[in-house]
Amino acid sequence: SLKIGVLALQGAVSEHIRSLEQAGAEAVAVKKTEQLDELDGLVIPGGESTTIGKLMRKYGFIERVREFSDAGKPIFGTCAGLIVLAKNIEGQEEPHLGLMDMTVARNAFGRQRESFEIDLPITGIEQPVRAVFIRAPLIREIGADVEVLAVYNGEMVTAREGHLLVSSFHPELTDDYRLHEYFTQMVRQSKTGESKG
Ligand code: GLN
């Protein structure tokens, strides 16, 4: 079976675990870098990206997650997790993981729209997905290998670059788990591809 970890340093962890289980994967909370060795995929949840980045540095996750990614293992970043994966963060000198070829803006919807919910059409998923945005970031620029999967008000809010998937919103806060199913499928394909050599 597929084993997918949810980085559990800060943020919305248990909701992701539930959604991954709904999507048919075995899901575990990841608190130690050693746990990465036994995982087929990793979710970096929403929360506060500065805090998550700080704790990742403190506990040695930056290097280890980069290795995990270099091995081709899928990573799914939601909200703060999207920021943690980005190569460039507007207004910040250094990225956190700096893995995905995009520039992101934090808290990009402004104060009057701190949180809201919409039905969002996503490429590769048949009907719109219920999407909860909370102090959400936006993707401002993307590299040539990044595929945009969803746009809201002309802004990029879901994207994929090979084995990396990101969403501005929180897919784990509803019982619509189809984006977790999509990610689980990416993990399954990467694992099968591996065993075929
Ligand atoms: N605004 C948060 C940040 O910049 C992200 C919000 C979220 O994950 N819901 O890290």
TrEMBL record:
L-glutamine binds at G47, E48, S49, R106, I134, R135. Keywords: Glutamine amidotransferase, Hydrolase, Lyase, Pyridoxal phosphate. Its EC number is 4.3.3.6, 3.5.1.2. It holds the Pfam family SNO. The keyword Lyase applies. Signal peptide: none annotated. It comes from the Bacteria. It catalyses: aldehydo-D-ribose 5-phosphate + D-glyceraldehyde 3-phosphate + L-glutamine = pyridoxal 5'-phosphate + L-glutamate + phosphate + 3 H2O + H(+); L-glutamine + H2O = L-glutamate + NH4(+). PROSITE patterns: GATASE_COBBQ, GATASE_TYPE_1, PDXT_SNO_1, PDXT_SNO_2. InterPro entries: Class_I_gatase-like, PdxT/SNO, PdxT/SNO_CS. Pathway: Cofactor biosynthesis; pyridoxal 5'-phosphate biosynthesis. The active site is at C79 (nucleophile), H170 (charge relay system), E172 (charge relay system). Belongs to the glutaminase PdxT/SNO family. HAMAP family: PdxT (MF_01615). In the presence of PdxS, forms a dodecamer of heterodimers. Only shows activity in the heterodimer. Catalyzes the hydrolysis of glutamine to glutamate and ammonia as part of the biosynthesis of pyridoxal 5'-phosphate. The resulting ammonia molecule is channeled to the active site of PdxS. This is Pyridoxal 5'-phosphate synthase subunit PdxT. It comes from Saccharibacillus endophyticus. The lineage of its organism: Bacteria, Bacillati, Bacillota, Bacilli, Bacillales.
